[in-house]
Each structure stands twice: as structure tokens, then as C-alpha cells.
Task: structure prediction
Amino acid sequence: MIVNKHIFELDRLELLSGATLKQIRVGYETYGRLSPAKDNAILICHSFSGTSHAAGRYTEIEKLPGYWDAVIGPNKPFDTDRYFIISSDTLCNINVKDPRVVTTGPASINPETGRPYGMSLPIVTIRDFINVQHALIRSLGIERLHAVAGPSMGGFQALEWALAYPDMVKRAILVISAGELHPWVIIMPGRVAEMAIRLDPNWQNGDYYGKAEPVEGLTVAFTALTMIALSQPWADRTLGRAPADQGSSPSASLENRFLIETEIDKVARERAAQTDANSYIYLAKATALYRAGIGFNSFEEALARIRAKVLLIPCSSDVFLPPYQSQKLLNTLQQAGVTATAFELESDGGHLAGILEIHKAAQVLREFLESA
Result:
């Protein structure tokens, strides 16, 4: 599929914090056609480092398609001959150097000052993300969603949709996700990544726009994020303990590296060069703050609001949002009377398997979307 990026604009948004954001913009993509009854829409929510580019290509020569292209398209589980798929960017998307990412965040111009928000932007949350998406969905004349789905942080959004707008969501699909981010992950890579950015001399308390950027700090941040998104079995299978240079043993010099060090550093530097550091900090805060059921007397009381059927798809080797967290959420959902099921991806790919190996869940996704 050849796809286009669209822009949705919102005059103002009351944030969960009580602050107000004005002149909001988010990018989004659509695949397939909305039915005359407008009852075939599915919303896809992206992960922490992703964008709304979930499927297809912008041009015929684009090297890689959207991240879930394996399951979105004609005759695929998210069948674009049958469903109208909407994929939306979140606020504070970290990929602001991509010209197609126009979403409001720290790098955006504050309309009241004429300067980038930087660290003056109010804290944003997962609930704020879905409230923007809700406005987008309603602007398209859609009153009910056949499903909301997403990996990782996208799964947080899918669950929050089912909680916040229970009458609008028929199905929620949480891939490599759970009901909250574990405190261990809040520290590693969350706090460690933020510390690396803040300690970079170029960060300048977030006032670096138009100047040298904190690329070194971001590189450390992405090193931590990349490794926790993978797994030890993956490292054994792919890079192991091989030296980066066969002629330079790591035991011969402090400067000689293992291959896994140089390869992950390369990946981290490439991502750092494409990323806005302040947006990374804000998005990390939003994920750390997320806990399904905030504002209710109990987690169970919150989940009892859900009217959607729920599908959980964890990965067996995930250490970021491990399968036991999905199982815990599954049990609580079922105890609250929610129709919920789970399918575990078998892979040594860790957290990233929910994106790179989503094809392994194709049949389960198809059956869930077609179920009564």
C-alpha cells in the first residue's frame, strides 16, 4: 500500500494535570475505507519509539514498510478490504526530526511565546493521548470502534481507551503490554536514560534548540532501551561474546570492544540522531505514570467498566513487560467479568518480538477481530 500522512488539529486540550494545551497537531494515517455505516473502524496506537506509520510505504522506493505491515493490509488480519484502519501519533512523539511527524511536543512552538516549549510543556499522560485520539475519531464521524490495538505503550493506550470510553470500544488488543509499567523498568531504562540525557552538557536544561544537541546522552538512553527491549537468548544467538575486531581481543586493551558493544552503540547512535531528547523525557514520564484505573477506588473497580473483549499477546522472552504481568492483568480482567483471553508469542526476540514477529499471532488476531 502507498499511504499518506494526514494532520489533525485541535484548538485546545484540557490535560489530566489540569493544564491546557493550545493549537495541538497530531499526524495520522488511514488504510482501507470507512463503511457507509461507519462501523468498521480500528484504531492502531504506536509504541514508545514508534510513529503512526503502521503499514504500507510512503513511496514505492521506501526501503521498509510500516512496523505492523505484516498484519495490516489486504487479506491480512487487519484486513483493509474489510476494515478502516486509523493509526495516530501520540503527543510528544520522539521522532520530531522526521518531516512527517508534526505532533505537538517539547520541540513545538509555544503559541504564547513564539519559542519551543522545551521543558515548560506541561506533563502529558496516556489519558491525554487517547483524548486527542478521541477527538480525531469523532471528527471522522465515528462513534464506535471495532477494535483498538497496539504494542507496548500502544497497548497502554488500547486498555485506557476501553476504560475511558467503554461504550465506544468493542475489542482491545494489548501486544507486549500490561496494566502498568513495573517499578524496575521505571528505573531501568527509564530513570537511567533520563539521567544520561540530563548529564549531557549540551542538554542545557532542555534549552538546546538551534544549538548542539545532547546526542551522547541520548545514545546512552537508547543503549539501555535497546538492550532491555531484547533478551539474553537473543544476544547468545546473534552476537554472543565475539570481539568487535577479530585481531583486537577485549582482554588486550580497555579500548577493545565486544561485537555486541559496537553493534548496539551503532543502533543507539542512529536512533539518537533522529530523536528529540526532551520528547524522550516527556514520553518516558507518560509511560512511567501510567497505571490502569487511576482515579478509581481500586484496579478491579476500574476494569469492571470495560465492555470490550480483550486480547493479550505477551512474548515469552520479554523482560520489559514480561508475560507474568499479562497473566496478572488477564486474571484481574476475568475476575472483573471482562471477556479476556491471551496468546503468548514464543520467541527469543524479547520485547521487540511484538513488533518484528507479530506475524506469529496473525491467526489469533484474525479470529479475535472476526469473533462475535
The two ends are 29 Å apart (CA to CA). The mean pLDDT is 96. The first helix runs from residue 126 to 139. The chain has eleven helices and ten strands.
